Amino acid sequence: MQKSNVLECVGLGIDFGGLTAVNDFNIEIGTTDIYGLIGPNGAGKTTVFNLLTKVYKPTRGSVFVNGVDTKNLNTVKANKLGLARTFQNIRLFQNMTVQENVMVGLHNEIGYNLASAIFRLPSYWRAEKKAKERVCDLLSIFGMQDMIEHKAGSLPYGSQRRLEIVRALATSPKILLLDEPAAGMNPAETDELMKNIQLINEKFKIAVLLIEHDMKLVMGICEKLAVLNYGMLIAKGTPAEIQSNPAVIEAYLGA
After folding, report:
1. How far apart are CA 221 and CA 161, in angstroms?
2. How far apart are the two ends of the chain, measured CA to CA in Å?
3. pLDDT tens digits, residue range 52-64?
4. What is the mean pLDDT of residues 94-117?
5. Dist. CA 110–CA 207, nearest whole Å
6. By three-state DSSP, how is residue 1 classified?
7. What is the pLDDT of residues 214-246, one digit of tens each?
8. Tens digit of pLDDT for each residue in 112-139?
9. Burial 214-232 (b: 16+ CB within 10 A, else e)
10. CA-to-CA separations, 209 to 19, 108, 173, 222, 235, in angstroms, rounded
11. Could you tell me if 15 and 21 are in contact, meaning their C-beta atoms sit under 8 angstroms apart?
12. Residues sharing a CB contact under 8 Å with residue 139, sequence separation 6 or more, in sequence order
């Protein structure tokens, strides 16, 4: 049985002045795929993420999420449609607690309005209780519930990376975009991250698209891979197909 697609890009591209950063990017990702986007430094991978999440407006092409064209959406509306991401450089609220950071991600699920929050009505307290329970459930994925009152900026680097993923999950995405999630992690942390990405994929039944330079992680968990070089897709396929593709080998190692 063929999976339906949660994400589809058709002829996606963007120019900055006279420079083409991404051109003719086409990809289809099933509802529970773990998909890798790889390529040399400067290939345009993060630019693709910025196009998908509406940080950049494409010069050409289309992005569909569950069949819905995202052309006229901003970043907030794209998130509500089901696109959530982490960043190459960690972007947490450093002076807020772990709990507060994840609560920010729950904005799509908040069950009270401004009036009930100002006057502290019963509906506010019920929603707050439910939200805090949800925070604990999400943190337990990474075994971080004991850090709930810690300031985000005080956490070790690997924990900050994991917290950013938890905050993205709090928005109830249909597809989770991870931009170099293993960056700065040691081998043990990377192995744990691999298991957690697979757990997230299975537990939440969502797709994962990740940019990563750690080939052990990519080849270990991704079902499919797309390879970018100079803003162009040069290969798509299974990890085995990509590893033996001459164009990919040339892009990474030179002719």
Report:
1. 18
2. 40
3. 999 999 999 999 9
4. 77
5. 24
6. coil
7. 999 999 999 999 999 999 999 999 999 999 999
8. 555 555 656 666 657 777 878 889 999 9
9. beebbbebbebbbbbbebb
10. 26, 21, 12, 9, 16
11. yes
12. 98, 102, 145, 147, 148, 166
Q: 89 φ, ψ to 5°?
A: -100, 125
Q: What is the mean pLDDT of residues 83-91?
A: 91
**Alpha helices (H) along the chain:** 45-52, 75-81, 98-105, 114-118, 122-140, 157-169, 187-204, 215-221, 239-243, 246-253
Query: Tokens for 136?
Result: 């604990």
pLDDT at position 117 is 56
Distance CA 80, CA 142 (A): 24
**CA–CA separation, 174 and 63 (whole Å):** 14
With a threshold of 0.85, does the pTM exceed it? yes
Could you tell me the CA-to-CA distances from 222 to 7, 165, 209, 241 in Å, in that order? 16, 18, 9, 12
Q: Is the pLDDT of residue 51 over 50?
A: yes
Whole-number mean pLDDT of the chain? 90
Sign of CA dihedral 105, 111, 112, 113: positive
Domain ranges of the chain: 5-253
Has domain 5-253 been given CATH number 3.30.2160.10? no
Helices 157-169 and 187-204 meet at what angle, rounded to 10? 10
Which one is predicted more confidently, 200 or 255? 200
